[in-house]
Amino acid sequence: MPSSSSRLRAPNGRACGLDFGTSNSTLGVAGADAPALLALDHGSTTVPSAVFFGLDHAHHVLIGRDAIAAYVDGVQGRFMRSLKSILGTPLIDEKTQLLRRRVAFREIVRTYVETLKHRAEAQSGCPLDRVVHGRPVHFVDGDAAADSRAEATLADIARQAGFSEVSFQYEPVAAAFDYERSVAAETLALVADIGGGTSDFSVVRLGPDRRGRDERKRDILASGGTRLGGTDYDRALALAAVMPALGFRTLMTRGDVEVPSGPYFDLATWATVNRLYDKAVLPELKLVRREAREPKLLARLIHLIEMRRGHSVLIEVERGKIALSDAEETTIPLDWLEKGLHPAATRPQFEAATVPLGERLRNTVRETIAAAGLAAEAIDAVFFTGGGSLVPSVRAAVRAVLPEAAVVDGDRFGAVGLGLTIEAQRRYG
User: Fold this and answer.
1) How far is CA 221 from its chain centroid?
2) Which domains are seen in the chain, by residue range?
């Protein structure tokens, strides 16, 4: 269980709530009337969790929308996204080559968090010394030791970024506190926070008479989660709709052996795209192309890697995923790779590719309700937040367990950050 919600010692400076997300991040402070998220990225309260290091020494390190724009515009450099997903994995302690030096991934995460903090301090006009950090229920599935290391790593990074006091709250619990501001009567809710890297659930008792209490442990009946989120749905769509156009699952000339699948899984996964730029990858793929039955498709993949545009594929896939929330069919435009190349993607295709993901979500919801000692019929409402909650099959998976519960949609990208800010005010005063 994360840090207690009881009041902690308050040093000089202001407290904040920080939702460092796989896809987007927010930071909030308590305002005169209500908690508020700060607009830290070109007037937006959401900051894409992306970092760009230019290869030219004249370039500064960029984060958020500026990082994405530099990458898409073809500025020479190194682009990284979904950094949160490496917490709890050995990769967090590894180094990557940037310019003429090797930089630890934890230093890159610190750069991102530190930049958010500096922007927030400039906007709020005072130092931010204390933070309630959001965290998933499980950074890592089925490994308590790795989970503890991930939280400790994130706390250490926050301190290195300049926070003197760091505590944590589960992200779905934080979202529940934001939802609670709008409930008019006592409600037993399942909060479903479907983020970019994890899906997290909490069963919480909420109500007008409860929201002012300093201690809320008894109201949090159970929390559960799984390392599955929007980026997993991106990967499924990429593998189903885009990778075949680059040679995925095509055959070699000898026998019925498929071309190696490793590069396609790396390309379809936000956190591993940069592996394709290792100097050993292209020579190996060129050897595969010589023995492939459809060398033209392998040539597309090779050209993409030579252009270092792997993340551009996932940016377009993510847009396609969002489009399929409302449409039955869309296209994934890759004209920048080859004129006229725009693979089709359909909702039935997408839903078929994500059937196993939906089953994992259903099982996690069932386990969380059971851990609360309740039957599904006891839940009054399902509160959805997180960008992944836009996906129809995600909502259907959760609703399948709770067909009678009312459905409430919160601020998909702000509820967790607002709830963490409420918690920061409660803990630090």
Assistant:
1) 25
2) 14-184+412-428 (3.30.420.40), 231-353 (no CATH)
Distance from the Cα of residue 204 to its chain's centroid: 23
Give the number of other Cβ atoms within 10 Å of residue 252's Cβ: 15
- Alpha carbon distance 292, 306 (integer Å): 19
| One-letter identity of residue 391 | V
Rounded to the nearest 10 degrees, the angle between the axes of helix 105-124 and helix 144-160 is 50
Distance CA(247)–CA(300), nearest Å, equals 8
Give whole-number Cα distances, 29 to 18, 19, 32, 338, 375, in Å: 9, 12, 10, 46, 37
C-alpha distances in angstroms, 142 versus 91, 344, 364, 367?
18, 37, 13, 14
pLDDT in tens, 15-67: 999 999 999 999 999 876 789 999 999 999 999 999 998 876 545 789 999 99
Give 73-127 pLDDT, tens digit per residue: 988 888 999 889 888 888 888 887 776 777 888 999 999 999 999 999 999 999 9
